[in-house]
Design goal:
- It is a single chain.
- The chain folds into 2 domains: 121 residues; 314 residues, DD-peptidase/beta-lactamase superfamily (Beta-lactamase, 3-Layer(aba) Sandwich), CATH 3.40.710.
- The chain has 16 helices and 15 strands.
- β2 and β3 form a beta hairpin.
- The longest helix has 17 residues.
């Protein structure tokens, strides 16, 4: 998985720094990169002189300090601080040159961050650039505008728009499996990146509504022999980015950060052993790992596998017949799937060829679905009495979400309160990582204005 999510008035998407860490320097690189990026994201909250002192003494490498002047560093950090203060959304992505942070507000800024591979993994390159704002969308010219966005970068996928409860656009573009001449259709199955986090959230809300657990339960309530530094970690903290767990559980022993196989026992062993980024409740950093831990708790509480619990309580009841785990074909045909045009794992590069789903991503990824099935899921969990009032309210709030994987799939969606307005953009090729980004702010603005 590459991105996740988020949510309310602003939106955030994060790339799995852990995947880069696995290829470079393990958890030390991940921890350093996370700390540098969080410091830049929070630059607006710090006095400028304090920010400069921190970066010059703790974050910039000796080579970067030697190559730049004090005036250049002050001007750069001042510009980043101003851009962060004006940003309504923050995104982090990666390429072969390092990390890219996007700060979006009235203007759009891109910050390029290069981090040394050698310990202590300090910043050895930093630059900021103002980008052109994405073009606005209009309902009057919506299809033509989206045609231009999709065909201009040779993107393949599916776009769906609903306004005031009425579908105003649903259109497929390009090829699902180009080598076989199979086009994308409205029921094509895509990899959905980190979207299973919503399935995990629904599972926790359901179990709480049944009084089988509480979001205020601690790790120590559900596992024996928990180390003292994490025994008090609550489910609520796992659900809200306050667990202190790193982003992903993959380490240097795993051949792939998503697909390498580990079972639940190994996942739980790593969970108890990994150093925390911060004490639970004393920081804020999104963690896919935390949702895997929630999936393990679902299994312990329910007495069934996580996937069986989802299928029995959500998928089957909602009529989600085209949703499944990696490695699972169900009653589907190869031609029902889109092939990702990213890193190739199997021929064709479709989710049934990637399984079984590992506990590296259980609870936060490792699944496929369709537009129709995701709509069925959200309709189901927002019905009264399904997952309780608190869970229902969570899914009825305004939410923007970005998900994807390095195998070439990306998914963007936005829902307003009560879900009368919605947009989905599924991609399986075109534009590389972050290809849904030109759709994000224009679609959010369009739906908020109509």
């Amino acid at each position: 998985m590459r991105w996740i999510i988020c949510a309310i008035a602003a939106f955030i998407w994060v790339s799995p720094i852990a995947a880069v860490a696995q290829e470079q320097a393990g958890s030390a690189f991940e921890e350093a990169a996370t700390a540098h990026i969080m410091a830049l994201e929070q630059a607006a909250m710090r006095p400028l002189d304090e920010l400069i002192e921190e970066f010059e003494t703790q974050r910039f490498s000796a080579s970067y300090m030697a190559e730049t002047t004090a005036g250049e560093r002050r001007a750069l950090l001042s510009s980043i601080r101003d851009a962060a203060a004006a940003a309504g959304g923050v995104g982090v992505d990666q390429d072969d040159q390092g990390f890219l942070m996007s700060l979006e507000g009235a203007s759009v800024y891109q910050i390029r961050i290069s981090i040394a591979e050698a310990a202590p993994h300090r910043i050895d390159g930093l630059a900021i650039e103002e980008l052109a704002a994405p073009a606005a969308l209009s309902l009057d010219t919506l299809e033509a505008d989206i045609d231009a966005l999709m065909t201009g970068e040779n993107r393949s996928g599916l776009v769906y728009v609903r306004v005031d409860g009425e579908v105003v656009m649903q259109k497929a573009y390009g090829m699902a499996i180009a080598e076989l001449g199979i086009p994308v259709g409205t029921e094509t199955i895509f990899g959905i990146g980190s979207r299973p986090i919503d399935f995990t959230m629904a599972a926790i809300y359901l179990l709480e509504s049944q009084e089988r657990l509480s979001r205020d339960d601690t790790l120590g309530d559900h596992f024996p022999d928990v180390p003292q530094d994490r025994a008090g970690m609550t489910l609520r903290q796992m659900m809200t980015g306050q667990s202190g767990l790193p982003d992903f559980p993959a380490n240097e022993s795993d051949w792939d950060a998503d697909l390498g196989w580990i079972d639940r026992a190994e996942f739980e062993r790593r969970t108890m052993a990994i150093p925390l980024l911060f004490a639970p409740g004393e920081g804020d950093a999104h963690s896919h790992w935390a949702f895997g831990l929630l999936a393990a708790i679902v299994e312990r509480v329910s007495g069934t596998s996580y996937y069986e619990f989802l299928r029995e309580n959500f998928f089957d009841r909602a009529g989600m017949e085209r949703t499944g785990n990696y490695g699972e074909i169900r009653d589907l045909e190869m031609a029902d799937f889109a092939a990702g045009r990213g890193i190739q794992r199997g021929l064709p590069n479709i989710p049934p060829n990637w399984g079984p789903t590992s506990w590296l991503v259980m609870g936060s990824g490792g699944m496929y679905s369709t537009l129709g099935d995701l709509e069925r899921f959200y309709t189901h969990v927002t019905r009264e009495g399904v997952i309780g009032d608190v869970g229902r309210a969570y899914f009825l709030g305004e939410r923007a979400q970005l998900d994807g994987s390095d195998r070439g799939f990306e998914l963007f969606s936005f829902d307003d309160e009560e879900r009368s307005d919605a947009v989905y953009v599924f991609l399986n090729s075109g534009g590389g990582p972050g290809a849904t980004r030109p759709f994000v702010r224009p679609f959010i603005n369009l739906l908020r204005e109509n």
